Amino acid sequence: MSTYMPKTNDITRKWYVIDAAGKPLGRVAAKAAHILRGKHKPTYAPHADCGDHVIIINTDKAVLTGKKLDQKFYRWHTGWIGGLKEVKYSKLMSERSDKAMTLAVTGMLPNNTLGRKAATRLRVYKGAEHKHAAQMPEVCEL
Predict the structure, then answer these.
(1) Which of 34, 42, 78, 118 stands the most exposed, by the fewest C-beta atoms within 10 Å?
(2) How far apart are CA 18 and CA 59, in angstroms?
(3) How many structural domains compose the chain?
């Protein structure tokens, strides 16, 4: 069986909007990563960049199940000695829910040039308003 090689004419990009209101953060992020990679298309090839654009709205109304709000932390290192920083997801979701969603989606993308390119096609908004109405995005249901 030969490997499918999509031509540049075969790769078309559509826009999708996902409403995260009342939905678990991880499920929304998984669906967005799936669309960003292009795995929903019959012309998908793992070595080619054939994904679509994704707009995620209402991230401030996304939920975390279980005790994740109190027990889960976002940790990062500044690069300096003793520079390990952490913030609880309860604070992160209340103040910067768009960053929490972006971190979740980019963590589900591959750590290579394809993943970095796919992450540039992600747009995340706290509220219901976005500025991409001219692209006529389709509503994507989970």
Answers:
(1) 42
(2) 10
(3) 1
Which residues face 55 on adjacent strands? 17, 123
Contact 85, 78 (CB under 8 A): yes
Taking only the tens place, the pLDDT of each residue in 67-82 is 999 999 999 999 999 9
Rounded distance between C-alpha atoms, residue 82 and residue 101, angstroms: 27
Which residues form the domain of 119?
15-64+93-139
Beta-carbon count within 10 A of 132 CB = 13
Please list the alpha-helical segments (H only) found in the chain.
25-37, 68-71, 89-95, 97-107, 113-119
What's at 97, amino acid-wise? S
Tokens representing 33 are 């990563």
- The pTM of this model reads 0.94
Q: At residue 126, what is the residue type?
A: K
